[in-house]
Amino acid sequence: MECACFKADFQKAFDNVSWPFLRRILQWLGFSDKWWAWLEQCVCNAEIAVLVNDTPTSWFKARKGLRQGLRQGEPLSPHLFLLAVDCLARLTATAKSNNLLHGIGPSNDC
Description:
The chain is mostly helical and 110 residues long. The chain has 3 helices and 4 strands.
């Protein structure tokens, strides 16, 4: 009986989405530079306030800054993350079909 097990750990996955990779995906899908600029304004330069003891702070810019990936809680983040994961799955399948990626097999030492 053949069996395979795979676990994907998506903990902090949003934080690890590459912005250049995401931009290339959107360009490949036909999104214009203008759409990308709108997306950056929504995701990277949004203004937010934080509740501290049920009292909101002053509004401030929520910039990408040193963060690499998508922001948790941002309504667009799950959709953008799915685009990145789907593209990664397609790239993996293409690499496999072109014999650029090989699976692992069981050890003969067992």
